[in-house]
Amino acid sequence: MSSDTPARRRPTHRKGRSTLTRESVGRAALEFLGRRGPAELTMRSLAADLGVSPRAVYNYVEDRRDLITLAVELFEADWCPPELDAAPEAWRGGLRAYCDDLRAHYRRHPGMTTLALRENVTMARHPTMLRNVDALIGFFVRVGLPLGDAYRACMETIRAVVGFVELQDGPYDRPPPDLDPAVLEQFPPPWLQPEADLELPYLGRLGELEPTPPDAQFVFTLDVLVNGIAARIPTAGDGD
């Protein structure tokens, strides 16, 4: 065969259906996790979702652990955060926008952090994720934090956003089957409403206040985060 003959390309469709690749299998798993959760993800259930035999899925992933690791890696690779400007007049607003974008990414793929920990796939360190973490640490260094505090600020930023999505957004975005959505509109929530014979003056008075929607609560969370980080930045007089 001549060297000028173009290499054969694998068809993207066969019998009217797209052919599988390792990435397409991983993305199918990522989408499955968003709809049905990790407890239902098996090689057989994913194969049924794809309309293929389980053996076809095993051609691209070794087992369920490999499948979940691949889904986590794709989740990490998909996030392209906004640029961060460390200038004194810009960093606070930029960090808020960064957190808003990270929150949106996690809301599109709920439960990913819990899944990674539960399934022990902490080795799924995609290069894109590592570069994003390195860039966020560098941002905090440029803002004025010492390297150790910059690392801690990076981790606290991620924890604040991911924790909010898991604990606050999760029930609103995808209420559990046994939870009446009307419960989410109660303030304070039922689990914080004291019994009539229990004297809890502050919890008791919460019912007099207007409930805080998740978006407004997230603004408060970012106020605490950004102001706390700002308080850690050394000033010119520090150490004199």
**Spatial strand arrangement across the major sheet:** 1-2
Q: Please work out how many helical segments DSSP would assign.
A: 10
Shape by Cα distribution: flat
Radius of gyration: 23 Å
The average pLDDT score comes to 86
General description of the model:
With 240 residues, the protein is mainly alpha-helical. Helix content is 57%, strand content 2%. The chain has ten helices and two strands; from the N terminus they run ββαααααααααα. It has a two-stranded antiparallel sheet with strand order 1-2. The chain is flat, with a radius of gyration of 23 Å. It starts with 12 loop residues before the first strand and ends in an 8-residue tail after the last helix.
For this entry, give a set of tags:
240 residues, mainly alpha, 10 helices, 2% strand, flat, disordered N terminus
Quick take:
The protein has 240 residues and is mainly α. 57% of the residues lie in helices and 2% in strands.
Write the layout of secondary structure elements.
Blueprint: E1 13-14, E2 17-18, H1 22-36, H2 43-50, H3 54-58, H4 64-78, H5 91-108, H6 112-118, H7 127-143, H8 147-173, H9 201-205, H10 214-232
Antiparallel strand pairs: 1-2
